Structures are given as C-alpha cells and as structure tokens.
Amino acid sequence: MKDAEPIIGIDLGTTNSLVAYADAAGPRLIHGPLGDDDVILPSVVAFDENGDKMTIGREARAHAVERPLTTIHSIKRLMGRGVADMADELSHLPYRVESLHDDDENRDIASVVIGNNRLSPPEISALYLRTLAQWAERHFGKPVTRAVITVPAHFDDAQRQATRDAGSIAGLTVERIVNEPTAAALAYGLDRMNEGTIAVYDLGGGTFDISLLTIEDGIFEVLSTDGDTHLGGDDFDRKLIAMFTTEIHEQFGVDINTPTIKQQLRTLAENIKIRLSEEETAPIEIAINEGRVYQRIVTRDEFEGMIAPFVDRTIEACNRAMKAAGKRADDIDKVVMVGGSTRVPFVRRRVGEVFDTTPYTALNPDQVVALGAAVQGSILAGTQRDMLLLDVTPLSLGIETLGGAMGKLLAANVRIPCQASETFTTFQDGQTAVKINVLQGERELAKDCRSLGVFELRDIPPMPSGIPKIEVTFLIDQNGILNVFAKEQRSGRAASVQIIPSHGLTREEVKQRETEALEHAREDMAAHHLIDVRTTLEFDLNKAEHMIERFGHLVSVEERTKLAHGIAEIRAFAETSNDPVAINEKREAFNRMTIPLAEVGMTASLQEQDTSTGEVSGPEKASRSG
Amino acid sequence: MASQDSTLPAKCLKCETDLSSPIVCEGCSTLYPVPKAADYFMLLGVERAFSLDQDKLRASFRALSRNIHPDRFSGQPPEVMAMATRLSAEMNQAYATLEDPARRANYMLELAGGPSAADVRDVPGNLLAEVMMIREEMEEADRDDRTRICESLLAQRADVLDQIGSLADQLATADDETKTNFRKLLNSIKYYDNLLNELAEGPLDSAVNERA
C-alpha cells in the first residue's frame, strides 16, 4: 500500500514554511485549519519557560514581542551549524544559543536554550514539519508519512543531514532533499513553453542561491550553482535596525538592548522594508520615554544604499555561477525570481542589469518552491514520468591531508550522484582503526573549510604498518548527502565507518529524539482521546437528563433518584480522572442503567404518536425523545 | 575489445529484452553492475574515438539518466536504490570525462597504459621558461595587456589540444615514446589552465573573460 500513500512537498523556510501536493492536475498548496487562504505557516514556535511547546505559526509569531526569549524564529540559520560558526549571527537573535553538548569539544551543535532545556535545530524544525504533515493528513483524510523537503542549494552536508533528521523526528520518511532553486525551476518548467536555459535567483529571508539550468525534453539539468547560506532579507532588516538603534542612542542617549524592544524593532524594520517596495518613503515612529518620540522618514534611496553591499554579493555569485557553467548573460533565456526578498525593486533592477533582461516575476515568489517540491514528489511517486531532475553538488568535498591541507576529491558543480575513492593505510603495526577528517569548501587549508566530522574506519585486520590498503569511497547521493564505504583491499573485508558529525546529531541521537517525539505524539493522541471520551459522556448525560425531565414521572422515585445520583457521580469522576478507558467504562455502565427509562420513554412516545394527528413523522419524534 | 564484450549479457536475464546498454534493461528497468570490461565509451554507448560525436554522447547520457537515476527507483528496496545511485555516479563520472577534450584524452592515454601525471611530470620543450616569462609580464600588465596575454594563451592551448587530438586515436598501438610525449602535451594543458585562471581573477575584457 506504500505506493498509494501521497508524497508531499515541503518548503521548510527561514521565515515561512509551506506544504503542497501534485497530482495529474498539477501542484497545489495544501491549506491549514483556517481555510483556503491559510497556506503559510510562519516558521515560529513559542515555548513556555519549561521548554514545552505552546503555540506554533501565526499565533507564536504574535507572541514574539512579549516573549522574545522563548519565541523561536529563524531556526534554519542554526541548522547544521556550530556556535563557533555563528558568532556574528548570535547578537541578532533574541533567544539564547549554546552548544548541545558542553563536554565534547569535537562536537559543536548550535542549540536553543529554553529554561533548563537545550533543543537542537532539527527538533524545532520537526515541529513545523509535523504541523504541515497534519495539514496534509486532514486534506487527504489519511496518514501522510512520505515527503520531499527543500533546502538552499548552497547547504552543506551537515545542513542537509540536519534537515533530513528533522524529517525523521517529525515521523516522516524524507524521500528526497531537493535544492530550492531547482524546485522552483520544476514548477516553472511544468509548462513546456518554458524550455531553454534559465537562471533561478532565489533570495529568501536568510539564504541566497543562484542556479543555472537547462530545461529540455522534461530533463532539468543544473549546470552550476552558487550562493550564500547566510544572506537574505533578514540582513536588510538588520541594517535598518542598526540605523534606528544608532540614531536613538545619538538623539536620546538611550541604548536599545532589551529583547522586547529589539523584537519590536525587528517587526518595524520588516514593515518599512515591505513598504519601501511599494512607495518612495516610509515613516517610522518609536515612543522612547517620557513622551519623547523617535521619528523619521526612510527613503527608498537611503534603503537601497544600505542593502547595496548585500545585493553586490549576490551579483558576484551570479557571475561565478555563469563562469562555472561556461555561460554568458546572453545565453540565459530567462531569470526566474524566487523568495520574498526578490520583491525589493532594487534587487530586481540589479539582477536585470547583470543578466541584461527583465527578470521573470510572474510566479508567486513565496509559493513556487513548495509547488516544485510537490512536483518532485510526483516524479518519485511515478505519477510524473516525463520529468527528471539532474542536480550538482554545491561545494567541493575533500579530506584533510598531512600538513593540514584540503585534499580535494570531488569538485563543486559536479553532477550528483558522484563518487571518488581514496586509499588509506596504517602508521603503526597492528593498527585496526584510521581516522579521516572529511571537509567541504573551496579553500586551500583544512582549517578554512567546514569539517563534516571525523570518519573512523574500524575493523581493519591487524597487519604491519603501511600494509593495509583501505579503499574508501565517498559517494554524494542525489540528495547532496555524503555516504562513505570502506574496504580493506588485501583481506577484501569491509571496514565499518563510524561517523561523529562535527555539527550534527548522531544516528543514535536522532533515533532517541524520534522516539521522544513519537511519545509526545502519543500523549497528544491520549489527550485528544480523553477530550473525545469526555465529550461523548457529556452528550450521553445530557440525553439522560432530558429523558428524566420528559418521562421521569413514568418510573419510580427510587429509579429517578438512582439515575440522578449516577449522573452526579460520573460527572465528578470524569472531572478528576484522566483515564479515558475508565471514563468510558463508567459511561457504558451508566447507559445500561438508563435502559428501563429509555424503554418506558419509547413506549410513551409511540402512544403519543398514535393519538396525535400524525403531522410529526416517526423518526424525528423518536430522535427528539431518545 | 570484442572478446571482452562477450562478458556482457546480450539479453536481459529477467525479461529477455535485447540489452542496448550494459547497465540497464530498457524493457523492465533491471539494473546491472558495470562490467569489469566496460570502459566509459562502452558505458555511454559511443565509439572509442577522440573525435566522438558530442551530440550523440549527450543524447546517450540523457537517455541513460532517465533509466538509471535513483529518482526512478524511489520506494523500491534500499539495495535497488543503492545500485541506481552507484551506477548513476559511475555514469556521471564517465560522461564528465568524455565530455571534456583534455579529460577525454587523459582517459584514452590511461586506457592505452600510458604514463600517469605522477609518472611523467615533464612538459614539452621550453614551456616552463615561457610560463615564467608570461608570469613576469602579468605582474606589470594593465587590462589591455592581460587581455592580449589571455587571448594568446587560449590560442596556444587550442593548438596543443589539436596536437593531442591528432595523436589520441593511435594511442592503443603507439610506442612508449609517443605515449610519453602525449603525457607531456597533456601536462602542458594544466599550465595554461592555471595561468588562465589567474588572469580571470583580475581585470579582463569581458568577451575574453568568459572564455578564460
């Protein structure tokens, strides 16, 4: 039955997350509980002080100002990262970030601190994934366990792994990790008129990607990709915030450092940015103290001056991507704009200049990635047989060699899946394990690249030093995720590979969180079940009270008293008991007690019907009386 | 290679369709491991020649991708997915090697049992002296000079590649000296590429920059 299960597509965004599904009619967004327009889940979750989840999405976002320390947004920026990587970033986040493990210096997993708890980014992302899966489950009326999840094309292995871990914790089988610009291209290229060479410029809240592709006969072939996983619209907001903060300090001698005001400023800055996409100026007004008010007008020119350095960085990436693909601006038929930040007119203008064409902005930049993920889901499900996606790896992969250099094994922009092999040996007699530091990045020195973790080859047969020949295969799969296999050539024995990720959870840690999440889900289910049982009980008790009122005079006083006592007793029990099974048993026992009354009532209403003029039909009457 | 071809099954072991590729049956999508005897040319179903048909190569790569990409096997047992992934990785490597003339020539030398870049590090004639001169020139060069140097390097590289092309198809029957000279020519390509990369990092006229 696995094939009959739908594969949903999820855009797990820095700011917003969406879910979609594609069938023969094409991809469509799946909406949330509030109706057709409720298609965006803000990627925000509010916790209480103990680290228990309170609300998610729009409601959580509304609490951000009151509870800046326990309202978590932009978790995507932390995925697969260490605290040490994020020094610049942390001052912008109102909540606390520390490494998941204090005691292990080889592992630095940036995690969110709430009360005494530390939550890893995959655990928090799993909450959004779970919510979106529930939207889908309600849409289909059946469980949904298979999903395609998108990531920025420039995400490294650790960030991709973290995303896949989030899926597992949410109880989903992640059928595929797809690059966001590539997903957007899938949605764009559904229309066969759109074949050709395209660039997808994807500037979101926290990440930037540029990908060049050819679309021909349904094959989407990525030629090159470049980008920056820490560059996005959030940076535009931060520039505005920095300006307000400085000016307020200069004018009023007031420092803005409380999380609440910081959060307020964030909201204001975001609104101004949005307004400046439509208008030439935007006013700002902030009450400082004792009736003093900071106010000014921000002009579009001023804003563009502020964001120009960021936009320049995206333009450089576009040029690098064209060079890597061996393409010139006039080879590009269309530049497809994706991500909310491409609404900024300055961004559109600069992109238009570099590619010498008017950017294509007809697609909804917030929705197209989720729609594309759904299309990939339909390719995997086999319902879309004509289309195929051929992607590339965004970063070079290598190993640390003697002397701390980066020994490149696989270059950036190589088609995936791809693999490379390297032979290792031992340095000591009888050595049975060898450690390899695996790296990703474009720099010459290992210390300037990102370490994916230490891969330990174990179970090497003991031999004199230098004799074992351990062939290690590094395979990057279609998800852009690294798989490592090792084989000792002389003995022909497979060596096991133990991976200790530098910035990610181990397999065991993911499993443990999966189990915990499942238990939480069970608790939630139990809570739902309890509510259901109580509701049913209350319905039955009301019905009984109604019968006593109408037909009570037809039974004995003892009978009436017994029923009244029964009702009071079971109500008291249901209020204090949390055991749905016990409540249900009591309810059934009580219903048996009401049978004599129900029979008397039935007879009475039948007689009533016989003597009446018959304008009320039987079934309706019966339902009224019992 | 005819005797080695015979190690490949002619018909699919499962559905008995005639196999047009050594790694996949077009009829029932059964995957086969890459036969030990198969080289990249065979894998992609193109003639073993330096001047191969680029369009045919690309068409063959795309057709094979449709049949063996792991996305085609989603939901199937993990070992089938793993097989599709590894086959795709090998085919991608084969295609990347044959697609680029310098890499293709390098591979043909390898097939012919010629010396590797580690075995023979030399370059032809006085290339090293020339490279040093060009480096000196680059230090003082303005935009126009750099553009001129770039153009001249591109032309030299194309000449070397022509020489490589005229020799490549005879490698299988060539003597050791010819193979060593071929290796030296291939080594020189790296020097040109390094210089061109360095030039591309500085200011250049755009038309040349894109080729560099």
Provide the descriptors you would attach to this structure in a database record.
heterodimer, A: 626 residues, alpha+beta, Substrate Binding Domain Of DNAk, Chain A, domain 1, Substrate Binding Domain Of Dnak, Chain:A, Domain 2, six-stranded mixed sheet, 27 strands, B: 212 residues, Helix Hairpins, 2 domains, 60% helix, disordered N terminus
Q: What's the layout of helices and strands?
A:
The complex is a heterodimer of chains A (626) and B (212).
Chain A lengths: L6 E6 L3 E8 L2 E4 L11 E2 L2 E3 L5 E4 L1 H5 L8 E2 L14 H4 L5 E4 L10 E5 L2 E3 L1 H20 L5 E6 L5 H13 L3 E7 H9 L7 E8 L4 E9 L2 E10 L4 H20 L6 H20 L2 E9 L2 E8 H26 L8 E5 L6 H11 L12 H14 L6 E3 L6 E4 L5 E5 L7 E7 L9 E7 L9 E9 L11 E7 L5 E7 L4 E9 L5 H45 L5 H20 L3 H14 L1 H17 L6 H8 L1
Helix pairs in contact in A: 3-4, 5-10, 6-7, 6-8, 8-9, 11-12, 11-13, 11-14, 12-13, 14-15
Chain B lengths: L1 H4 L34 H4 L10 H15 L9 H22 L1 H11 L15 H14 L2 H26 L7 H26 L4 H6 L1
Helix pairs in contact in B: 3-4, 4-5, 5-7, 5-8, 6-8, 7-8
What is the CA-based Rg of chain B, rounded? 21 Å
| DSSP strand count of chain B | 0
Helix vs. strand class of chain A: alpha+beta
Calculate the mean pLDDT score of chain A and round it. Answer: 88
- Tally the beta strands of chain A: 27
* Mean residue pLDDT of chain B: 87
- What is the percent of helical residues of chain B? 55-70%
Low-confidence stretches of chain B: 1-6
CATH class of the largest domain in chain B: Mainly Alpha
Number of helices, counting only DSSP H or I runs of 4 residues or more of chain A: 15
Q: What share of residues are in beta strands of chain A?
A: 25-35%
Oligomer classification: heterodimer
Structural write-up:
The complex is a heterodimer of chains A (626) and B (212). Chain A has 626 residues and is an alpha+beta fold. In chain A, 39% of the residues lie in helices and 26% in strands. Chain A contains 15 helices and 27 strands. The relative contact order of chain A is 0.10. Helices cover 60% and strands 0% of the residues of chain B. Chain B contains nine helices and no strands. In chain B, helix 3 packs antiparallel against helix 4 (78-99). The A-B interface holds A 2-3, 175-176, 217, 219, 322-323, 326, 328, 376, 379-382, 388-390, 414-419, 475-478 and B 62, 65-66, 69-72, 74-75, 85-86, 88-90, 92-93, 95-96, 200, 210.
